[in-house]
Structure formats: C-alpha cells, structure tokens
Design brief:
- With about 200 residues, this protein is mostly helical.
- Helices cover about 65% and strands about 0% of the residues.
- It has eight helices and no strands.
Amino acid sequence: MGAARTPRDRWVEEGLRALADGGPDAVRIEALAKRLGVTKGGFYGYFADRDALLRAMLDAWERESTDEVIDRVEREGGDPKTKIQRAGMLTFSDDRLLPLDLAVRDWARRDEAVAERLRRVDNRRMALLREMIGTFCSDPDEVEARSLLAFCVAIAHRSLATDHEGRTRAEVLAHAADLILDRPRPGSRQGTDPAP
C-alpha cells in the first residue's frame, strides 16, 4: 500500500501561508513541499504548474474573505451597524485574513490579474457597506463617503505611525466608528439642545 497523498487543500493552505509571510515570490513548490514534509512530486497530481496553485490560492482567499465572511455575518444576524463591525472584525482583525489581504494588495500592484481579483473582492465589500449604511443614511453621496471611510480606516490604520495626543489608537478608532456609523458616543450630548 502506497503512502497517502498530501491533500490539495494543504498545498493551497501552505501556499497562502507563504504568500502572507513573503509575498508571491515565496510561493515555491520545493519550499512548500519541504514545509509540508513531502516530496514535490505529489504537487503535480493536483496542479499543472505553479500558476495553477496561485490561482487556487486566490480562489481560496476570495471565497474565505468574501463569501464566508458575508455568510457568517448574515448567519449571526444583528442590526446593520453590528453587521458592519462584524464584517470588519472578521476580515481585518483576523490573524489569518489580514496578512493575506495585505499580501494580495501588495501583489496586485505588480500583477493586473491579481488587481482585477482584488477589485472584485473590494467591490463586494463596498457593496455590503453601502447596503448596511444605506439602512440608516438616505443620502447616496454620504452613503458612498461613509462606506469609503469605513473601508479605508479598516485597512490603512495599521500603516499609520502616529500619536493621538492623549488618546489611544483604540479610542480614536472607536470614535471613528461612531462617526461613520452615526452612533451617539457615551456621555455625549448628541440630540440635545446646546448649553446656553
């Protein structure tokens, strides 16, 4: 009886780890085989070549970062504001999806096919934001602006190396979320008459 083959999903998963750690150039068949503790011959039972693996990796990333996130957000329910926060947490606070998302974004700068895939994923994410924000904001221009701000904050705040003058990053992000989601801040006088 022959040795069991390494499942296709393990090659894809290991490829995604390599992508997150070192970008697309780190996705090498021999290196993946070594990390999996197998010979590279089994790879060709699933993939014609490295490009086929890269496409399978992008398929897995797209499915996990859109379909699965949206399904979970809908399954767990809540009001639209809760759903927006959940989608953001699942996508951009996750130790798995965030590094993959950032690696795909970097890769997309140099590869038009990857850029097109990223555009499709980002458009689905923006559509979800527009739909949810549109439930409490009726101005289409404001819906678009709030959606863009939410998306930019979720992705870019990790790239900033700034202080917040006596506030923590978490406090500033919470306030930004309150502004974007049109929520009153605890202890604020929103909705009351101004003091004389």
